[in-house]
Design goal:
Elements lengths: L4 E7 L3 H11 L4 E8 L6 H14 L7 E3 L13 H4 L21 H11 L5 E5 L4 H9 L7 E7 L15 H5 L1 H8 L5 E4 L1 H4 L6 H8 L4 H21 L9 H8 L4 E6 L1 E3 L10 E3 L11 E7 L1 H12 L3
Parallel strand pairs: 1-2, 1-4, 2-3, 4-5, 5-6, 6-10
Antiparallel strand pairs: 7-10, 8-9
Helix pairs in contact: 1-2, 1-10, 1-11, 4-5, 5-7, 9-10
The structure holds alpha-D-ribofuranose and calcium ion (CA).
Length: about 325
Amino acid sequence: MTAAQKIIIDTDPGQDDAVAILLALASHELDIVGITAVAGNVPLALTEKNTRKICELAGRRDVPVYAGAVRPMVNELVTAEHVHGKTGLDGPDLPEPTMPLQEQHAVDFIIQTLMGHPPGDITLCTLGPLTNIALALVRQPEIAPRIKQIVMMGGGFFEGGNITPAAEFNIYVDPHAADVVFRSQVPIVVMPLDVTHKALTSASRIAAIRELGSPVGIATAEMLEFFERFDEEKYGSDGGPLHDPCVIAYLLKPELFRGRRCNVSVETASELTLGMTVVDWWQVTDRPANALVMRDIDDEGFFKLLTERLARL
Ligand code: RIB
Ligand code: CA
């Protein structure tokens, strides 16, 4: 059996982050070295607490959780309680966490972990704004060549934006951090709205998860039923896009996804298109390809994988 992939999950839970974390915790192919929280969907005090709630829901008090950036690098924090609810994890009624938050700052943990492991050992899975990752890269640029890859949920191109007509939330909240990451020369895999909007929940898909009957299955169903309402109302769809679990699913079954290597550049100045990811999909410029950008998913296979794995918790 091949050795488990060592990963750090950087996250702003958020119901879809929670499902991504549960999928990772249920998968023996992944060794979660630590989970770092960042301000995004809700403020940091809630994203770090929600991260610990999710670890305890999965019975994994052993996973170290770190708090990171309390706000973006330059811009003011923009949150998304309108999507995720006041707590950021509305839906299930999860108990207050009892596992401790690590003392060390998330950025220091990311740097220490990358410098302390052989180059190419650690994958960064980013599920929220990229503030922690960019701060680590600026603080200690030597970590860049040591990162195996960054697999991120963020951006959108053909699908447009979800927080503005042009920008996806994770990139919009901290466009300067995203710019640092896309210029870092680190191998990047991007799960933009173009692919996550094809990973839609549905009544039957949520029912299959609820029918697991476990605390994890029931809580996940409750999270998804709360989370999907926003997108259903907005897009008139039956179900909401399960954004962040696409990042973890890629590590488990990359064949579920299809995309191409191309250049991704981030708008950091224009008021109209701030946070837009300009994807040179048709390679009409000489900008170097800096990311593998996903556009298609086998959504049946994705939900089959997710449900099978959640059954293990
Ligand atoms: O735009 C979707 C992304 O923003 C997801 O990561 C969701 O959790 C929010 O952080
Ligand atoms: Ca997220």
